[in-house]
Records
---
Amino acid sequence: MGAVSAAVDCVVALFSLIMAVAAPLFDSQIVLPRRLYPAPLVNFHRWFIAEFDDYLVADPPAFFIGLVWLDLVFLWPVCVANLYGILARRRWTATTSLMAGVYMITYLCAILGEMLSSGKATPRLLQLYVPFAVFAVTAVLRGLCSCSAPLAVAMSLAPSAQKKMV
């Protein structure tokens, strides 16, 4: 069980690292003026749009701009905290993993719903989002299944036994 937990931690840490870096350097270019970014980042953003034919990033609709702001205000700090918590082995990372995973699943439902219903998405663009779905589900499972043994034992004890433990 320890190997599975370590593998899940690695997957969620990688997801958190990607989001902690991508949100301020890449996603924010959708909502903030490009003059705030160095030329290599702007060029990378343009390359990404051309390479993956990401029509949502190229010409973002209003709902997508709202999602990007939510990324910057909510998901980015949660992913930074989650990455720190996993590396420092903090117990509260179950909560931050759950928060990041549920947010990402919700985000992907909106994005993939638009892409699939519009018919504008290329297979390559859809494949780009699949790993994020895997990361999101893994983060949710980590958040739901990260119950420590002492807590599980304490929860199973009768109320009178819990008072004696304290």
Note: The helical segments are 2-25, 39-52, 55-58, 62-87, 93-118, 123-145, 149-156, 159-165.
---
Amino acid sequence: MASTSSETPSSPGWKFDVFLSFRGEDTRHGFTDNLYEAFISKGIEAFRDNEKLQLGQEIASELIQAIEKSQYAIVVFSEKYADSRWCLDELVEIVECKKNKGLKEVVPVFYHVDPSDVRNQTGPFEKDFDEHQRNDRIDREKIQKWKDAMREVGHLKGEHILPHQT
């Protein structure tokens, strides 16, 4: 569950030090939980969504506000990250906040995925984007924004965690 402290982490206007973006199905009950708990134990205010927030189809205003009020974002790319329209919408918002709203840094974690697959939407991401393309209810412009955001964050220096490292 996200911290709801009214104290600002390091400077005025910030509510969280770190916003965690991840596909719960892949990493919630392992890597991401451990990362979150490590932050909290060090006094770092971290936001992660809880499962209840994902009941709607569109990204929740609570998540947008959490991204906007975070100094940093960590994006945990995993095999099913792009399967989630929710994760992809979150990623677009993170990129937008980095460009225009003062998010200081975005750090990708390539969890059991190849960074080049993230950048190029190949490997496990290719099938997900093919399915999004076939879905008539998803605007093509939105899909392009998702791809652009994945490409942009995929080019950033980050951590590559291989299966034998966890």
Note: The longest helix spans residues 24-41.
---
Amino acid sequence: MAQTAVKVYGWAVSPFVARALLCLEEAGVDYELVPMSREAGDHLRPDFLARNPFAQVPVLQDGDLTLFESRAIARHVLRKHKPELLVGDGSPEAAALVDVWLEVEAHQHHPPTGAIMVQCILTPLLGGVRDQAVVDENVAKLKKVLAVYEARLSASRYLAGESLTLADLSHFPMMRYFMETEYAALVEELPHVKAWWEELNARPAARKVTEHAVNAAKLWALEKAEQQ
């Protein structure tokens, strides 16, 4: 039996791994998710550091090509297998808008959303106590960002126009966790942002990626319980 040419190394609960998996699912690419354990230090082992010297997940192995950084992996997968998700309607202007909103996701949306997720979900999960001051600061920042999104999405169905693109998909992994916090109302109170999010979340590819993460989280919880 032939081996799967595309492999993704990482833990499925990571939103960064989820970004890579989401694009592979959207493009219909067969892949293998190679499970790793952060607790066991798999990302610090020499064989993994040979793939990514920064010791971060995900890593994509596509034949002889090895890539890291989830946004770069996403672009590669779509450029190779579903390029329309990078260019909107195909015009240079539409492609430029995709690039703009990918930058907005990375530099405006991700930082406050990620900070809230870390404090509200990850820190308690690891036995820590969240810093409410950090949460409050980033909630204020995210409110301003989402107001811009609401204005944009009132003018077009998706961020880069009337076609779904990576500019939209790239938001899914972190937003999925954010929507599990008590601050989900920030999205739900904005009708256009809410409709956009619900459409993203309902996509078959998104549901598959969520299934990966949920199953991995259950396995992690079971292993932790057995250690106690």
Note: The radius of gyration is 18 Å.
